[in-house]
């Protein structure tokens, strides 16, 4: 049929066409909006609530990593569905606009893909229209005549009913030469039923896979329960997984009263009297450098350590270290309360993956916090995991996890409840021991910029001069390129920070 003649015939049937297609487009619009709202509520809302609930109660780092991975997968999956639904909404709104405001333009868009009418066959109750090698079944009661030609051919419009209550409109030509045949209706029913079964199986497999991923114990190819992978066969290891001294005790004067020394054998020794006596620390130096031993300024050279990963003292010494190899590491604390004569160890976390920043702080009454950061699949972001102790490091339990969308520079706690996470351009505070975080407001004068080496840099930890005031030295860069340590104070528990004064210029050596 000529397209111009077809256009004339269709224009004459505008009222019927509009009455058929308007409900179809409105139905599709409602379905797309409903699906997008459901996806937002399920994948973004409910997923976030479940994520926070599980993270507040997770017992192991490996389980926390699984929860985080599943959380991000749900966010991405939900985002894709919502985006597709919104795109569908835009297309439906465009069709609605043309149908109601520019019917001739709508017909022109429809006829752009028109390549002629397919042969139509029928039985007692249905028309069967061939479309893209598929046979579309239209109930005769859902079809109307648009126009009838002189030769008896009828231009008709029909509605196909799909799954989930979705309908689709078709315009076809019923000629006077009709072929009658009986189509196996059961086959079409099976096809529609197969679509519903496929959707059900897909959802079931998705939920089952998520459940298995979350609750199945992670298997690793490497042995992470022993320190043997880090030491040679000649190194002697005690039953507790610690080392026995092999090399000679150092005979040297220390520069500081309390100092850690790495011997040529990579054995560790500590002194609390400037080197008059040295005590053997039953760890290999490499064990203190598990994972990625870097700060945001770069990798730390061998022989240097991250702040607060160890402490040397007569009354109490501790070392945060890892054992194992491969992707997953076990995290331990070695500590001594008798100047290194005897040592104890406790497990802080198990199967820690992508370890980078780490730190331990102890407070009054034997409470303490161990904080670590782990790089994630999201570019630049890191997961922060906190562990707490109530008995000076003998036992640890996880207390909170969060993801920060920037590399961690420092984590500083005032006590077991109030703490801070700093990046190059932001500060996040917690007032409930790391169970939740909020971004703090930092007042930066006009001639300063964020992006310094550290916002909190040891020994410039957050301090509490009195019960109502917090103090910290923030490293800020002036617009001339020079960096300065600046005194800041907070009077609301770290929610907002006010500039007090510039203290001194900071160089890279500081």
From TrEMBL:
Positions of transmembrane segments: 37-54, 74-99, 197-215
Alphabetized InterPro entries for the sequence: WD40/YVTN_repeat-like_dom_sf
Keywords, comma-separated and alphabetical: Membrane, Transmembrane, Transmembrane helix
Protein's UniProt name: Glycosyl hydrolase
């Amino acid at each position: 049929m000529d397209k111009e003649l077809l256009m004339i015939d269709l224009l004459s049937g505008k009222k019927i066409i509009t009455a058929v297609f308007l409900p179809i487009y409105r139905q599709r619009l409602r379905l797309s909006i409903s699906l997008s709202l459901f996806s937002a509520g399920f994948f973004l809302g409910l997923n976030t609530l479940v994520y926070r609930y599980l993270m507040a109660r997770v017992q192991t780092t490996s389980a926390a990593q699984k929860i985080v991975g599943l959380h991000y997968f749900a966010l991405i999956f939900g985002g894709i569905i919502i985006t597709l639904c919104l795109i569908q909404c835009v297309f439906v709104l465009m069709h609605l606009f043309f149908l109601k405001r520019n019917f001739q333009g709508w017909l022109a868009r429809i006829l752009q893909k028109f390549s002629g009418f397919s042969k139509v066959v029928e039985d007692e109750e249905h028309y069967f229209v061939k479309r893209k090698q598929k046979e579309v079944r239209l109930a005769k009661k859902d079809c109307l005549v648009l126009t009838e030609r002189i030769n008896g051919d009828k231009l008709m419009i029909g509605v196909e009913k799909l799954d989930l209550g979705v309908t689709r409109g078709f315009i076809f030509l019923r000629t006077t030469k009709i072929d009658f045949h009986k189509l196996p209706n059961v086959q079409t029913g099976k096809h529609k039923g197969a679509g519903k079964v496929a959707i059900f199986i897909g959802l079931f497999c998705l939920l089952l896979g998520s459940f298995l991923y979350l609750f199945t114990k992670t298997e690793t190819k490497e042995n992470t329960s022993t320190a043997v992978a880090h030491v040679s066969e000649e190194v002697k290891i005690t039953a507790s997984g610690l080392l026995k001294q092999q090399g000679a005790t150092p005979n040297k004067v220390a520069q500081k009263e309390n100092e850690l020394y790495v011997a040529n054998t990579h054995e560790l020794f500590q002194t609390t009297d400037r080197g008059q006596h040295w005590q053997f620390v039953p760890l290999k130096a490499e064990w203190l450098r598990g994972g990625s031993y870097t700060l945001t300024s770069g990798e730390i050279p061998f022989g240097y350590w991250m702040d607060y990963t160890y402490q040397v003292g007569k009354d109490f010494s501790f070392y945060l270290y890892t054992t194992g190899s491969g992707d997953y590491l076990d995290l331990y604390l070695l500590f001594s309360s008798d100047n290194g004569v005897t040592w104890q160890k406790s497990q802080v976390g198990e199967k820690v993956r992508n370890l980078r920043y780490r730190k331990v702080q102890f407070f009054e009454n034997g409470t303490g916090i161990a904080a670590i950061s782990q790089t994630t699949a999201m570019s630049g972001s890191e997961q922060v995991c906190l562990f707490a102790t109530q008995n000076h490091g003998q036992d640890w339990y996880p207390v909170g996890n969060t993801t920060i969308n920037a590399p961690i520079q420092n984590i500083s706690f005032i006590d077991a409840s109030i703490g801070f996470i700093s990046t190059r351009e932001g500060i996040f505070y917690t007032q409930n021991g790391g169970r939740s975080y909020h971004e703090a407001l930092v007042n930066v004068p006009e001639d300063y910029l964020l992006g310094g080496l550290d916002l909190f840099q040891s020994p410039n930890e957050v301090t509490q001069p009195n019960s109502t005031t917090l103090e910290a030295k923030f490293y800020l860069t002036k617009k001339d390129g020079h960096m300065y340590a600046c005194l800041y104070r907070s009077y609301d528990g770290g929610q907002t920070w006010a500039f007090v004064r510039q203290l001194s210029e900071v160089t890279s050596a500081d």
